[in-house]
Amino acid sequence: MLSKKVEAALNKQIELEAASSNYYLSMASWAETQGLNGVANFLYGHSDEERMHSMKLIRFVNERGGHGLVPALKAPPAKYKSVNEVFETVLHHEEKVSQSINELVDLCLKEKDYSTHNFLQWYVTEQIEEEALARTSVDKLKFMGGEKAALYFFDRDMAAHATAAATSSTPKGME
Q1: CB-side neighbour CA atoms (13 Å) of 143
Q2: Does residue 74 register a pLDDT over 70?
Q3: Distance of alpha carbon 45 from alpha carbon 40, whole angstroms
Q4: What is the 3-state secondary structure (H, E, C) of the chain?
Q5: Distance CA 120, CA 20 (A)
Q6: What's the whole-model pTM score?
Q7: What is the pLDDT of residues 39-58, one digit of tens each?
Q8: What pLDDT is attached to residue 169?
Q9: pLDDT confidence bin for 68, thresholds 50/70/90
Q10: Domains and CATH numbers, the chain
Q11: What does residue 122 show for φ and ψ, rounded to 5 degrees?
């Protein structure tokens, strides 16, 4: 059984994960309109993954006797100045999600809710991967220095990353 405090915090995390999905969906749509199909496919996949994170939380809350709430969301930005801005936004957002997960873990320890603490360890590990991927992308884009030819290769690399993630045997978020 979840305490009301933990249930409320988990529902806030559900909202953050759902908002992440919408942000990445909006970024993907923008990238696609800029001819960056590899980046778009990467972000579409990332949007799906964030939705699965939200669903996993909803189901956990419900299984523990709480009520996972589907949040109303604000529309994310629809336009970006550059692919650099997109990935800097991704990095900043993933850092925000990591901070939120850490605060949730801390709350679970204070509330002595070891079941939820154990459940959240998957998210802790996932956030390490998410931040590393975003940081590497930002670093690569900085290294490229705005070179159009380099952007072509970055877009191609993102397409390969999206394809690799899509063909993994277990969909991310469903382990």
Answers
A1: 9
A2: yes
A3: 9
A4: CCCHHHHHHHHHHHHHHHHHHHHHHHHHHHHHHCCCHHHHHHHHHHHHHHHHHHHHHHHHHHHCCCCCCCCCCCCCCCCCCCHHHHHHHHHHHHHHHHHHHHHHHHHHHHCCCHHHHHHHHHHHHHHHHHHHHHHHHHHHHHHHCCCHHHHHHHHHHHHHHHHHHHCCCCCCCCC
A5: 18
A6: 0.89
A7: 999 999 999 999 999 999 99
A8: 40
A9: very high
A10: 4-166 (1.20.1260.10)
A11: -60, -40
Amino acid at residue number 15: E
First and final CA of the chain: distance in angstroms? 23
Amino acid residing at 168:
S
Q: What is the pLDDT of residues 84-128, one digit of tens each?
A: 999 999 999 999 999 999 999 999 999 999 999 999 999 999 999
